[in-house]
Amino acid sequence: METATLASLAVYFIAMLGIGLYAWKKSTEDSEGYLLAGRNLPPAVAALSAGASDMSGWLLLGLPGALYAAGLVEAWIGIGLFLGAVANWIIVAPRLREQTESYGNALTIPQFLANRFPSQGTTLRVVSAIVIVVFFTVYTAAGLVGGGKLFETAFAGLLPNVGMSDYMLGIVITAGIVLAYTMIGGFLAVSLTDFVQGVIMMVALVVMPLVVMFGSGGDGGESLSEVPVEGFLSLTEGLTFLGFISAVTWGLGYFGQPHIIVRFMAIDTVEKVKTARNVGLTWMGISLAGALGMGLAGRAYAERNGLVVDDPETIFIVLADLLFHPAVTGFLFAALLAAIMSTISSQLLVSSSSLTEDFYRLFLRKNASEREAVNVGRICVALVAVAAIVIASDPTSEVLGLVANAWAGFGAAFGPLVILALTWRGMTGAGAVAGLVTGAVVAGTWIALEWNASFLGGEGLYEIVPGFIAAWIAIVAVSKATTQSAETRARAPAE
């Protein structure tokens, strides 16, 4: 039986590598091709790539696990995310697609900021790149933790003994496959695999809750109200004001996630952004509903059938292994790996682009050829992956916790900066630097001092809230206190 499951996963891995080889032949001749697929992504590919790279392993592990443990009150995270995604597609997507091309054909977010505010160009590129690499290393580690948990839970003792635990072997296998197709095919490979992975994820999230509720051992969801957790189906049970704010403000993070908004830069025309938005939001709504249903139905099934689940974040893995034919189980595990790998590959590529374009070409080899830059980018992908493996090696790590910290760091550092850079004529380079540094420092300090929330039942406030507010205030205050350079005024976008 396990052989059929492994065979399904093997087919999935081969398909991802095949896409990487296809992309290698199509779009890796120069930096624009390797980093942005030549700005020629079809709307559907861009939309599902943005969604799949956003909804990482937390969609099939962290969010269902939170619902499994605490009930429907945890849905506020998903609600906040959906509202934030809507605003991101409306406010940021069309403007970023247009302005990154008009401001010197910028290939990265730091490069766009430098072109937008040339008086502080070098500072913005360096600080932005540092923030991206640091937080994305943590974010990538969260995805690798998900891969480790999958192999540890589903294939315990089945994989060959190579001197490491199933958890670590899972991390290494996950990282190895992602590295292969990302290093080979660049942004096009990442985007095409994201599209396929997004479809797989959505299908799995629709099928799984229905089978859990209506299949063998299910009861059509009738036992949901019988789960021995007070207010399990209530959106407000045990909800504090800080808990509510901490949950719904996850949506603020969208404005500052480089691996998501870079997809907007790659859509083939500005006019097609609306089509991409409709596709992306439909996919996201269905997938989030499936994840919520997975957590609730999974808990009801476990209570009804006396199933013991030690780690709530593994409920998807446990039920996939228990309820389905091994070949289908392999498909469901592929969906989980798709969620994990789509995000990891996007994060590795964005980190690599920053290291290459905003360090290597800026300081070390200003006249580096396109081929050299592409090869350096591949090396940087591997370096960030190794650092993430080291962070993920702790088997007690929680996917949702690592994602929450990295998400907040990006949202606070880049969110206000991106919105105001795209929409406000009065913003200055000094204000941009102040906002970037303030957001990152406040969010990081909040985490370090443990003032952040342990969601919806714990004390504290999610660090994205103070970080986002502080960065916005810093940008406005410093911009008003400084003078725009003539070139910045002349090139600033219309209000």
UniProtKB/TrEMBL annotation:
UniProt-annotated location(s): Cell inner membrane; Cell membrane
Bilayer-spanning residue ranges: 6-24, 75-93, 126-147, 167-192, 199-218, 238-255, 281-302, 314-340, 373-393, 399-422, 429-449, 461-479
Record GO cellular component, one term: plasma membrane
Pfam families (UniProt xref): SSF
MF (Gene Ontology): L-proline transmembrane transporter activity; proline:sodium symporter activity; sodium ion binding
GO biological process terms, semicolon-separated: proline transport
Reactions catalysed, as given in the entry: L-proline(in) + Na(+)(in) = L-proline(out) + Na(+)(out)
Main location: membrane
Topology of the protein relative to the lipid bilayer: Multi-pass membrane protein
UniProtKB keywords: Amino-acid transport, Cell inner membrane, Cell membrane, Ion transport, Membrane, Sodium, Sodium transport, Symport, Transmembrane, Transmembrane helix, Transport
CDD domains tied to this protein: SLC5sbd_PutP (cd11475)
Family: Belongs to the sodium:solute symporter (SSF) (TC 2.A.21) family.
Entry function: Catalyzes the sodium-dependent uptake of extracellular L-proline.
Name assigned to this protein: Sodium/proline symporter
Organism: Erythrobacter litoralis
